Amino acid sequence: MRGATAGPSPASFAGGGIQFVISILLFLYIGKWLDSRFGTSPWLLMIGVLVGAVAGFYSFYRRIMSSSRERNGR
């Protein structure tokens, strides 16, 4: 008889949250650097934050969906 799987630990999702914040900060600084280089302030910074948020959200979404598939046995 198989026992129920516990699923991913809360720590793995906390790691996903940290990854989300790091991706936003990374793209924020890249956008800020590009703004200072090209004089387009604040447009590239805002685009960088948006891209970082989308990338972080997508990564977190994939992690959750992968966890869900493993838990359901698919």
Overview of this protein structure:
- By secondary structure, this protein is mainly alpha-helical.
- The protein has helices at 10-38, 43-72.
- The model has no long low-confidence stretch (mean pLDDT 86).
- Unreliable segments of 5+ consecutive residues: none
Structural class, from secondary structure content? mainly alpha
Give the tally of β-strands.
0
* Averaged pLDDT: 86
Number of helices: 2
- How far apart are the termini? 19 Å
Give the CA-based shape: elongated
The radius of gyration over CA amounts to 17 Å
* Fraction of residues in H or I helices: over 70%
Q: Quick one: biggest sheet?
A: none
% residues in beta strands: under 5%
- In N-to-C order, the SSE pattern is HH
Keywords:
mainly alpha, 74 residues
Architecture blueprint of SSEs:
Layout: H1 10-38, H2 43-72
Helix pairs in contact: 1-2
Task: Give a concise summary.
With 74 residues, this protein is mainly α. The chain has two helices and no strands.
